[in-house]
Amino acid sequence: MNSKPPITLLVFIAMASPLALNAFVPAMPEAAEALGTDVASIQLTFTLYLLTLAIGQLISGQLGDYFGRRPVLLTGFALHVGGSFLAAAAVNVEMLIAGRVLQALGGSTAMALARTILLDVHGREGAAGRMGYLVMAIALAQALAPAIGGLLNIWTGWNSIFYLSVVMGSLVWLVALKYLPETSSELTSSLRPGQMLKRYREVLRSADYRGYVLATTALASAFYLFVGSTPYIVVEQLQGNSADFGLWFLTISFSFMAGSFLSTRLAPFFRVDQMLLLGNGLAVVGSGLLVSLAWVGELSYLGLFLPMALVVLGRGLSQPNAQSAAISATQGAAATASGLMGFIQLLIGSAIAQTVPYLLQLGYLWVFAGLFVACILPVVAHLYAWQRRAEPTAKEE
Predict the structure, then answer these.
(1) Are 113 and 327 in contact (CB under 8 A)?
(2) How far apart are alpha carbons 3 and 6 in whole angstroms?
């Protein structure tokens, strides 16, 4: 291991993909109209982005363990910039989807390897607090991207949104080229499918890994349900526009940022499992309030965004701890464990996101009901993982 990469660089690495994902979300209804396509087709630009992130993280984890973190991450950012150019130049929905897929494939290296580099350098306990800074960076990107994307869509058209990713991706690539060292102290010796599957089986053999991954996956799925459905709810139910969605979405993203910030500050005083219990509990309360308000009254901006802000506050508290606990639950091949976690989370998230058009046909209350269920599951999964982790200690006593 040559040196420690600056945490600021890891922060910007972590921001790239969520910025690209969320900046386009408020412009999806207008892009569908401009390209002459329907909601289900334009939704694929969101769903396939998530699916490609899932598959890309699975591949990136393996490549990062074999080639090293630095070359894989630099190659990924180059692909991300190329995909952003392609999406910006799209003249039909097929070209737009192709650009989004390439954009996500490159961005997946950032999501998988930023966490892994942090674990390489600081270990489980040291990374648990610092992981909050990466989650905060994601929250900042999610806060700024919809607002900026919504305004760019109104001022200069939806195509211009993708130049934001071109600029940011290019800058991060240049800084990483100069300042990112190789942090892996031990590389795997094979990329053969049999060896790769063996490593995945070894990772999945850990019961607490499965529990922590399911906990963070379910809570992320609640967020994807909200993000995938709200632009249409704002336009069709509240007679708003992309700028309205982007500005109100600031409440969601800054709540996520606040939760992530609190997770870094509370890390010295609370154990990982205690933080997870607190965060997941807040998410249940927020999602329950969202369903209740939608059930008894008319839909409003306050009734839509403020309960969800409580959900993502809880997610900001729990996610960094769940991720570091999951990765550290396995022995060796940290990038493989991180990539597999991202794959599971985004694979399930993309499948859920594509159900949004069908749930909206049934009524927005069905979306909120699904979101509530997605907030209950992390509590169950975490308690399972916590119990399994405690069993060996109990047996030793």
Answers:
(1) no
(2) 9
